[in-house]
Amino acid sequence: MSDNIWKARWSRDQLRALLLEQFHAFWGRDTGIERDRLADLVRAAASPHAVIVSGLRRAGKSTLLAQLAHRLGEDSFYYVNFEDERFLGFEAGDANDLYGLLIELFGERRVFVVDEIQNVPGWEHFVRRFLDMGFKFYITGSNASLLSRELGTRLTGRYVPVELFPFSFTEYLAFRGQAAPDLERLTTVESARLRGYLDEYLRLGGLPEPLKYPELPLARTLYDDVLYRDIATRHRIEEVRALKELAYYLMSNPASLVSYNKLKEQLRLGSVNTVKSYIDYLEDSWLLFTTNVYDYSVKRQQVAPKKTYAIDTGLVRSVGFSFSPNTGRLLENLVFLALRRRTPEVYYYTSPGGYEVDFYLPETRELIQVSQNLAQPTTRERETRALTAALRGLGLTRGLILSDAKAEPIKTEGLTLEVYSLAEWLLQSYKRSN
Predict the structure, then answer these.
(1) 169 domain-assigned
(2) Residue 139 pLDDT > 50, yes or no?
């Protein structure tokens, strides 16, 4: 092993004990409900590519790999978790000796299952080398930017990316022990029950551990870990107060338009570059997403206000602040997450007349408006007006309004606006993303 702090700290027997302990803990962990992304990992098993699973801390990445491992079999893979503090100081140059230890303990195997690989400087070097020797890698990481940048330079054409989000609505139902209903034969009682589960999902979110242990402040602890460990420490931010205030503001205002200039002034953050950098860090750590306005001019997309969304509505309610339940914004956040599971190309749209529509997907040319309900005539008229203006602006004839209940399509001047139950749409959207 290379002459570094990691080698000096541990004896060979201690390293063997570490690897055995990690393997047995991993194999014996509770695998929970089957995640939707497991199918992606299984499909990639026959390919020679590394499979990279990225996502928020504690979103279930290790559990997803454990589900895959049980498909592969106990004697078919090596497991290493670089989040373990006993790997502090480990470098890419130590990989050969680590491999030798694994052979001594488990015999020759061709599959590596590796957690939190971003903690190893230069990790892409040894992964590429082992891939060239015919090994298979399943890897997790919690920093999107770090992974994508290094993958682009070292593993071009040699990896399959898999993004893992907190539970989808379908997965939440499975966690609750409820089978998804047959949407073609949905009774009135089932429809009402489904809306009740959606209200729960909106309030509690989809992070596995906070759902499993609701009596513990696990969502808050996760949030603090991301801010202080993944962002402040990693990027050597001295003025943590500014980062904390910005994150708190954005988490308290999901599905809102934000301007970097206004945020700078409102929160007294020093410069626009500071605001942009901090938001980039929040995105890289999977706490937040930003979307651009859809425009044929890339420059106008860049300078227009952004919309921000949180990774989980339960996390919003745990760490954010609001004078009211803010249900409409949280519902819009749920729709964003469902769309983002399908594609990274999610925009909002502003018509030539200035009317805003929540989502536009250019790949499929879908326009989607979210409304808590359409019971009030003024609300119905406002949502209809915005969507029809956007349809005309984009030369489309069909749009979608997601609300609390399905209703007859609204037809006007050759345009058709479908009105669909958000709860039912979330279940259908899940099927489309798999």
Answers:
(1) no
(2) yes
Strands 159-163 and 347-350: unpaired
Same domain? For 289 and 408 the reply is yes
Establish if 136 belongs to a structural domain.
yes
Residue 178 lies in a domain: no
**What token pair was written down for 124?**
């892409």
Do 192 and 147 belong to one domain? no
Q: Has residue 67 been placed in a domain?
A: yes
Same domain, 349 and 259: yes
CB contact at 8 A, 210 and 318: yes
> What CATH number is associated with residue 30?
3.40.50.300
- CA terminus-to-terminus distance, the chain: 43
Choose among 65, 77, 72: nearest CA to 37. Answer: 65
203 and 154 assigned to the same domain: no
User: Are 335 and 410 contained in the same domain?
Assistant: yes
Question: Do residues 74 and 24 touch, judged by C-beta distance below 8 A?
Answer: no
Band of the pLDDT at 157, cuts 50, 70, 90? confident
pTM across the whole model: 0.93
Total Cβ atoms within 10 A of residue 338: 25
pLDDT for res 1? 46
Read off the pLDDT band of 333 (50, 70, 90): very high
Going through 314-372 in order, the beta strands assigned E by DSSP cover 347-350, 356-361, 366-370
E-assigned strands of 188-296? 256-258, 288-291
Alpha-carbon distance of 298 to 407, in angstroms, equals 37
Q: Are residues 128 and 41 in the same domain?
A: yes
Dist. CA 84–CA 64, nearest whole Å: 18
How many domains does one find in the chain? 2
Please provide residue 412's backbone torsions phi and psi, each rounded to the nearest 5 degrees: -150, 125
What DSSP character marks residue 293? B
In the predicted structure, residue 432 carries a pLDDT above the cut 80: no
Please tell me the number of Cα atoms within 13 Å of 17 on its side-chain side: 6
Range of the domain at 310: 188-432
For residue 152, the model assigns a pLDDT of 75
